[in-house]
Amino acid sequence: xxSLNALRAFEAAGRxxxxxxxxxxLHVTHGAISQQVRLLEAWLGAPLFERHNRRVILTPAARxxxxxxxxxxxRLSQATARYGLSEAVSRTLTVNxxxxxxxRWLVPRLEKxxxxxxxxxxxxxxxxxxxxxxxxxxxxxxxxxxxxxxGYAMRPFLREERLPVCSPALLKRIPLQTPExxxxxxxxxxxxxxxxxxxxxxxxxxxxxxxxxxxxxDHFYLALQAAVDGMGIAMGPSALVADDIAAGRxxxxxxxxxxxxxxxxxxxxxxxxxxxxxxLFRSWLEREGETFASTHDx
Length: 298
Known about the structure:
- The chain is of the alpha/beta class.
- About 45% of the residues lie in helices and about 20% in strands.
- The protein has ten helices and twelve strands.
- The N and C termini lie far apart (about 50 Å).
């Protein structure tokens, strides 16, 4: 038997005539549909679609194949409902992610995943330990990257840059017209990222700038919260402050310079990379990353 995931992808794409629409229906990425269709074509040893720009057309043989397997999916749904199994057996997905990323990006979006997949229980733990030093066997690990770890498959899903951010109330009290005006402000630092401010000041052409005060926190999310509360200016990762900027809690006083930053990536042990639940969650993250990139321009 071919893969059930491949058959589902083929059935949806063939019925809808679009990989994009199939991806939306199955809540995965366009790339995931393409990959599953290619796997099925390789398994069958024959092409299934003719590609025409944004649409796909079934080959005559594939059209006959779809007519056979389409009703089978309907019968599966009917049988499941008839025997009281419409609610899938609950499974738990364990995720280990960075604390600031979890608090400011993942948690606000996680409800969307739960709505579409109520049978999946997600357990999240936070840490900044390197992937290879994690003792527990997590299903998905989220860290910066891209990095390579033996025995793990890595996939990026969210890019970002770093730039100064502060509260609108702070700008009313102490206006910022140019980067040199930061001499009158408090710069918010994070002890684990000591080079961020010096690198940005150097790129801004004011490496010797001395601020009015410096306040250092041991966690990055504390520095960002201090910025929201009007205590000073923080170096904000674009992905993690975009929601605050959209809500008016933070502003970016300067268009640039922007510091390049590492992408967020999923790391999955090779033995778990093919697990349906892992594939589902990774695809959801990648789709959310694509949506974020297309709707946020800081």
